[in-house]
Amino acid sequence: MNNENTHNANRSHMYDTKARISIPSYDALFAMIQSYFRVQLDGGDASLLVIGAGGGNELTAWGPANPAWSFTGIDISEEMLKIAQYKANQLRLENRVNLIHGTIDELPATDEKFDAASCILVLHFIPDVQEKLKLLRTINAHLKPGAPFVLVSAFGDRDSKELQNRLHIWKSFWLDAGDEASSVDEMVNKALMSLSFLSDEHIEKLLTEAGFTNITRFYTTGLFGGWMSTAAL
């Protein structure tokens, strides 16, 4: 293994480890989404749009077991996309994966629309509500009518006692994994609290305004929620 592959393998391992501490049911989440997509796509050839594909976990979770699926992944982080490409290469998925550095606006102009899309752990990094809505509307515009879409995001009313209680529970995941209390507090104060939290009602309103229907929250763990929906007909 050359130096670049070693670097990407180490970063991949670190990213995957942290994701599974932050979201203890991380693997179950991807398994649930796969089940939903499989039923909706009815076992045929399908093109999937992956927003926030850096890290490559959508590729590793869904690629090997679904040989008729192809993936177009977008991420603003070039370093994270290197991890995704490394995973695609390791799993020999290169012929079914196209990774794009940038935002959804970098998608090539085409009349072809996607059969499904995911936006997992991205929305809470977008501070402006109108920019969140713009992203969701653009995803909808790139989907075939009735195509399945899954959104996973941190959620909650920042000023509520309920979110503070969930924060305490979330911190326990890291403490139990061996992190020092001071480093966990720093992570909450500097990183986590910089995220753009919206209530679940507000997220569902944005999905509706973006044109999605059949909006259903199917997943909740710690600080994060997941919603299934379908693109406008």
TrEMBL record:
InterPro entries xrefs: Methyltransf_12, SAM-dependent_MTases_sf
One Gene Ontology term from the biological process aspect of the record: methylation
Domain Methyltransferase type per the UniProt entry, residue ranges: 49-148
One MF term in the entry's GO annotations: methyltransferase activity
Domain of life: Bacteria
SUPFAM superfamilies xrefs: S-adenosyl-L-methionine-dependent methyltransferases
Protein EC: 2.1.1.-
Pfam families: Methyltransf_12
Keyword entries, A-Z: Methyltransferase, Transferase
PANTHER family (alphabetical): METHYLTRANSFERASE
Protein name per Swiss-Prot or TrEMBL: tRNA (Cmo5U34)-methyltransferase
Native source species: Paenibacillus qinlingensis
